[in-house]
Amino acid sequence: MPNVVQRRPPFRRRRRFLSRSKSPASSITLTVPTTNHIFQREGVGAGVGRADLTIVGTYTGSPSAIEASWNGGGYVTVVSNPSGGAFTTKLPRQLVNSGTLAIRFTDDPSTNTSKSGVKVGDVYLLLGQSNGDGRGTNNQVYTGTSGWAAKLDVSNAWVPLTDPVGITGSSTGSPWPLLGNSVVGSGGVPVGFINCCVGGTSITTWLPGQTNYVNAQTRVAAAACKGIRAALWWQGESDAGMSRSTYLGHLRTVAAGVRADFGCKLIPCKLQDSTAISLADDTELWAAVGSAWEQEDDCETGPDFSGRSDDDGSYHFTTDASMSFAATGWYNALQTPYYTAAAGGGTGTAILAGHGIGLVAA
């Protein structure tokens, strides 16, 4: 047979298509505020005031501008010409309330993010020892308007207000959720608590530059709350036996530091009648606090617990009745200077001198 030569089919060159690179999706992320974040309002009075909301974040993409809305309001441009992938700005003059902060690209609204429970209200700094830290038998419960109360937790994050409010291993029930009920319900504003109290601490550890004072500075800076309404001082059991003049001198130093560093007044209470302390020593402490109320511009008059004994024979309020008593005492002390029309309400267009409100860096 003749040889048959098989021919290969002609080679067909595969057509190559240039791949098209896909642009990465744009994104936007918020660092501040966080969910449950609270900003200190300007002004005083029930249910009134405004605050600038600090906004810090990052983004990818090339937005023409970034805009923000709070509590369902209209969008406002907060960054006109974004560059570098990060921004720090503010949404100015927002009214007392709790709501959601939404932020987005102006030219691409689908690139957006939000934080819920952002608040404008009053922030209280808690300083002192075990009663402020909380030694109640039962945790107390905030029952006010949902989302209107927060605390700075042990990790320096804003979270809903629940007991224990204290940040030490000994923290238990406290009057602070009940005080939150009054501030929200009767004062008409959201409230936040930054608890720095540590059991068994002398006033000397709270002097400016000392450990507990510096810790308070660190927590306030982390809170990024733009100010403090007042510092509530519940301390003295560890200083039983200290003379009236010595304790008063230290209290003046603490109050001056608080006014300088936190822009607010110190509100000291007169301690409960501790059965573990001699009446003579109790009297010295009560007299020192009374002198601070009367003589010190950096102090506001606080609650007088001297007519009530401790519950456990060792300094502490522990019962539910005592928690309620303490919360009522604190609110009664706060009501006149901060939650009445006579206090100088209105929209708070300026920081009001004499009412213990000064703005601090976010």
Number of helices: 6
Tell me the overall shape: elongated
**Helix/strand structural class:** alpha/beta
Helical content (DSSP H or I, runs of 4+):
10-25%
Task: Please give the largest β-sheet.
Answer: 10 strands, mixed
Mean pLDDT: 91
CATH superfamily of the largest domain: SGNH hydrolase
Percent of sequence in beta strands? 15-25%
Number of domains: 2
Give a brief rundown of this model.
The chain is α/β, with parallel strands linked by helices. The chain has helices at residues 130-133, 176-185, 211-223, 244-262, 279-295, 320-338; strands spanning 27-32, 38-40, 50-60, 66-70, 76-79, 86-95, 97-105, 112-128, 149-152, 158-160, 191-195, 230-234, 265-268. The chain is built from six helices and 13 strands.
Structure description:
A hairpin with a 6-residue loop joins strand 7 (97-105) and strand 8. The chain has helices at 130-133, 176-185, 211-223, 244-262, 279-295, 320-338, and strands spanning 27-32, 38-40, 50-60, 66-70, 76-79, 86-95, 97-105, 112-128, 149-152, 158-160, 191-195, 230-234, 265-268. Helices cover 23% and strands 24% of the residues. It is α/β, with parallel strands linked by helices and 362 residues long. The model is unreliable at 345-356 (pLDDT under 50).
